Amino acid sequence: MDHMNAVTFTEVTKSYGDVRAVDGLTLDLRPGETVALLGPNGAGKSTTLDLLLGLGRPDSGTVRVFGTSPREAITAGRVGAMLQSGGLMGEVTVRELVRLACDLHPRPRRVGDVLAHAGIGQIADRKVDKLSGGQEQRVRFALATAGANDLILLDEPTTGMDVTARQAFWATMREQADQGRAVLFATHYLEEADAIADRVLVLHRGRLLADGTAAEIKARAGARKVAFDLAEIDAALAGRLRELPFLTALDISGHSVRLQSADADATVHALYGLGVYPHNLEVAGLGLEQAFVAITEAEEARTR
Ligand SMILES: Nc1ncnc2c1ncn2[C@@H]1O[C@H](COP(=O)(O)OP(=O)(O)OP(=O)(O)O)[C@@H](O)[C@H]1O
To answer: Start and end of every ABC transporter domain (predicted)?
Structure first.
């Protein structure tokens, strides 16, 4: 069983009325992988997670979790989830709620361990409806890890958490992945995806636009930023700068030039060929956020 994929989507389509929320999605997740699911609002991230939880059924195609239907995998206690929506039971204490989740799980962890790992040991005796937003998120996280799950699904898990809570959260998730669990999380925090995920999926209108490591996705977006200063920029030089090869953007302001290039090596080579002497030359890759914007905007332009 161990070689089996944690998740397999095969040609999955799901519509709500006229809206194709998921459109022909094919993808595999392997045990031990931490995977970020990115996409603009309405891209189909939550729908994808719902399908994995058996909360919706695909119109066509198949979703398998450890080789079974999502429902079977959940009944067997293999899937833990932390979703955006859904209120928590309020009249009970944090410990009581976590204990209930552990009692209901086919393969429960110890209540004390769950509380400690989620960083809520100190607030275990508080009523759930008296918690701050960030504390509530930690409790949701505890509920998602009440049992020994093999797949953990997280929908924007760190929304509302402070920096310390976020770091503790991702450290715990990393441990879970190191123990062979697959972790799939939807997020709008691209720096988090960049830092945490082994693999990044970019969804757009229900389709998979990119699938790779953060470094691969940045490289795929291609462009690099180049910045330098020149002693003097007259109109003739400005014209020649505009004709540098592989330029995708150029901004000249006083003595400083900022540009984007699809092939920075070739652009910088040609720049020296103009007989000028750039000072303070910097070449930098795009961040995941810029790469994400570049990829999704290119797709918008293509399908417009
Ligand atoms: N229950 C529903 N009924 C009707 N339309 C829905 C329903 N759920 C989702 N949709 C539509 O399906 C599309 C995908 O929505 P989904 O919530 O999966 O996107 P998302 O990527 O999670 O977005 P966000 O980043 O805003 O949370 C959207 O156009 C949304 O309006």
So the answer is: 7-230
